[in-house]
Specification:
By secondary structure, this protein is α+β, with helices and mostly antiparallel strands. It has five helices and eight strands.
Length: 169
């Protein structure tokens, strides 16, 4: 008896809710070629790398980390990493960057004013960039977002540049 009431009440509940049962059920309708092209273009645009200043603050097992990277249009890069905690670490790096698919590869030539050669990589993400840092026994991705305010005022915020002026004299 209760099953019969269920069969009678279900169409009534659908009608009351304002829903119409569709004959095709839960079939997935693939997008048209034009819709698919638009979706793909939107995804590519969202994943496109934009030069500028990226910034992040996060917590690692070894302490809080602050990361700031400035990618200039002329392929130069400045990268600062500050880890606070039991063993504080501050690294200011300079080098050149290039885009390699979904990665930004920075060839570092200088660390804290000393000549040094190594490569730092950043993963392009819809939110910005992801910098991977060793954290205890594993690797943690620190999500960096593009900061327009810092890009516009980067020269004023950098004490070396503001002390010497934009010409470097």
């Amino acid at each position: 008896m209760s099953r019969r009431w269920l069969y009678l009440a279900l169409p009534l509940a659908v009608a009351v809710a304002g829903c119409e049962p569709k004959p095709e059920g839960n079939l997935l309708v693939p997008p048209t070629v034009e819709e698919a092209a638009k979706q793909e273009a939107a995804e590519k645009e969202q994943m496109a790398f934009k030069p500028g200043t990226y910034f992040a603050k996060d917590n690692l097992l070894m302490g809080p980390i602050t990361v700031r990277a400035n990618f200039k249009a002329n392929q130069e890069a400045e990268f600062t990493k500050v880890i606070e905690g039991a063993k504080p670490l501050t690294e200011r790096m300079r080098g050149t960057w290039k885009e390699e698919g979904l990665l930004i590869s920075v060839t570092v030539t200088e660390v804290n004013g000393q000549a040094n050669k190594r490569v730092e990589t950043f993963l392009i993400d819809p939110k910005g960039l992801i910098y991977n840092e060793l954290d205890g026994t594993g690797i943690k991705g620190v999500v960096m977002t593009l900061s327009q305010a810092e890009t516009d005022g980067a020269a004023a915020a950098d004490p070396k540049k503001s002390a010497t002026g934009p010409s470097g004299a």
